[in-house]
Amino acid sequence: MGRILAIDYGTKRIGLAVSDPLKIIASGLETVENQKIIFFLENYMETEEVECFVVGEPFHYDDQPTQLTGKINEFINKLKKKFPDIPIERVDERHTSKDAKRIILDSGARKKKRRDKGLVDKVSAILILQEYLESNR
Predict the structure, then answer these.
(1) Could you state, in chain order, the average pLDDT of each consecutive group of 10 residues for the chain (137 residues)?
(2) Does the 3-135 domain belong in CATH 3.30.420.140?
(3) Angle at alpha carbon of residue 77, lines to 76 and 78, rounded to 5°
(4) Which of 10, 17, 24, 45 has the largest CB neighbor count within 10 A?
């Protein structure tokens, strides 16, 4: 049974989250530098079976694509070329970064931890995956 891997794409860092094999629980995996993501995924997939990629896609409040949309499309094309047998789903992530910051603040994390942008990316990936899992139950 494969896992679902969620991706919160960023031009500097990419937050990753994975499901458990039963596809019930979303857990943070890692935050990876953008230029190292394909290498990271290749290594991860040597030991874990990934059934599907879920990529967060941000939109403005008026449902228009953001300036990041083109870069996300390029990234998805790289994923398709490198991992052609793994389907890729897109999930609207227009609120995830703001929600991730709120969750980190509400958790009682210290100021230094709250400023960790990598943690925000990872929590955003968890939220993207959780939304996907809930909508596909």
Answers:
(1) 92 94 92 96 96 88 77 95 96 67 58 59 86 86
(2) yes
(3) 90
(4) 17
